[in-house]
Amino acid sequence: MSAVTAGVPTLSLVVPMYNEEETVPIFYRRAVAALEQTAVPFEIVFVDDGSTDATFERLRVLAQGDARIKVVRFSRNFGHQTAVTAGLHYARGAAVAVIDGDLQDPPEFVPRLFEKWCEGFDVVYAVRRTRKENVLKRAAYRLFYRLLRRLSYIDIPLDSGDFAIMDRRVVDELNAMPERNRFVRGIRAWVGFRQVGLEYDREPRFAGESKYPLSKLIKLAYDGLISYSFVPLRMVTHLGFLISVVAFAAVVYLLTLRVVYGEHLITGWTSTVVIVLFLGGIQLLSLGILGEYVGRIFDEVKRRPLYVVKETLGFDTATEMALRGSVETQVGPRPAMRL
Ligand code: UDP
Ligand code: MG
After folding, report:
1. Is 210 in the pocket of ligand 1 (CB under 6 A)?
2. Cα(54)–Cα(64) distance, rounded to whole angstroms?
């Protein structure tokens, strides 16, 4: 490894946290013990994604006692992928690892990822050998990753989430991407470089409930499919083509019956209704698919910032300034005023 600038850590660990108050202290202990094994200077960047419990207070205590701990606090809940994105913006390391804050990804695995990075790989992603969720959820995940792989135009590895280590070059590329609907594991695969997977066993949650209700999971799945695939749009085209061919054949058939054989088809209410309903359904579905893309375009063109930071702990002013790109303004306690 080459020499690094003084004060800049070699390894950064990015941890999104949303209402994980029970997990914070034990996560800190396990992560620090694991990172110390690498024997390089490191930092842990916690991103508090608008927690409503004591998560931030616990993180503050950690940051006060340990200079290697940095905290970015969002003004509200912006979602897991956005929290990871912010962590990548704030991380300074030559290598940056991303890990879930609920101890489902064992911190003890990070040195293994780091070792592979030292060998020269640019992205080392962890591949889940086993999962500890219920059968239904596991089956849904399996199906999704296989579907995504078939439909997308990039090579997204199977059964790998955001748990990975990335080289600075890769992180800089990700940070330069302006897109809003983030699917971090997708853009990570998209940038290329030398990538490799390492198998690990996914643990059950240490405490609390999953912060990914079904609605958020479906949004994530749509983001993955829509952002990295034109297949749904093409399917609409194919379907339209197919139905037109069938319609044309039906016209020829019915006209022949009428003109050549002089038949008057007055029965056929059922077939008419079935056809109308079928076409109506297909049209709504196609509109919906189109809408998914259009909605995302709308979201992108607004060019809003991805997230809003409420406060940060542990960063030096240079880092802060570079990220915010602004001059210092006056902040401080508000005057007490009573009318
Ligand atoms: N998380 C977050 N914002 C959210 C939801 C989740 O920062 O809106 C964090 C959460 O605290 C955890 C990680 O993202 O550290 C993964 O979330 P979770 O464990 O709920 O997802 P699951 O493992 O069930 O897919
Ligand atoms: Mg989890």
Report:
1. yes
2. 16
